[in-house]
Amino acid sequence: MQTLALVCQKGGAGKTTLAIHLAAEAAAHGLRTLLLDLDPQASAARWADRRKPGAIDVDVTVESPARLDAALLQAEREGYDLVVLDTAPHADQAALRVARLADLVLIPVRPSILDLDAMGASLDLCALARRPAVVVLNAAPIRSRVVQEAAEAVTKLGGEVMPLVIRERVALRHSLVDGRVAREFEPGGAAAAEVTALYTQTCKRANMSTRETV
Ligand SMILES: Nc1ncnc2c1ncn2[C@@H]1O[C@H](COP(=O)(O)OP(=O)(O)OP(=O)(O)O)[C@@H](O)[C@H]1O
Ligand SMILES: [Mg+2]
Known about the structure:
By secondary structure, this protein is of the alpha/beta class. It has helices at residues 15-28, 43-49, 68-77, 92-101, 113-129, 146-156, 170-174, 182-185, 190-205; strands at 2-6, 33-37, 59-62, 82-86, 104-109, 133-137.
């Protein structure tokens, strides 16, 4: 079983959006996937409540970071291939705990100066947890130099940047409204393709098998 965590101390960076999309993507590729919602806001769990019958099969459970070890053991016993952890912002202790138990941490960061300024704290936390961490530039404008500048800023801080960018996409936002993901909302669309690319890169980085799409 592999464990993937979405961590960023800054609010609104895209943790929940990417956690949901990666979990659904893994499930669409045939992995038995559990999304653990560790944020008291429970946004991912509420998304799950809105899912319709026949949707891609992702199990979503609300969990407290304080009993994450037990939850992961149980998930392993239940035969999950992948657990995706969505975390709360501004929660240093909880985020550290999560990072320690993850095989790979993804840090979504918006390519804006305020987000980049705050990114160091999340990188430090992953270093403290001694876990591999990769920054995912998220909600990037389509044509702008800011993406290149943001990637340089991450590298300058000693961080690793995912070699792809998730753009600001309406499908990533609107799909969640009625409990879908981009590949269900707009199959074959640009947002769905970016999520697939992110999933593939993430698997590669975490040495996970991507499996065939079913
Ligand atoms: N790539 C994207 N394109 C368009 N909208 C996005 C994208 N990523 C995130 N959003 C939107 O930005 C807002 C914040 O995203 P999200 O809730 O995923 O962030 P978060 O890091 O989980 O926030 P919090 O810290 O509050 O948990 C949401 O309205 C979401 O729909
Ligand atoms: Mg969130």
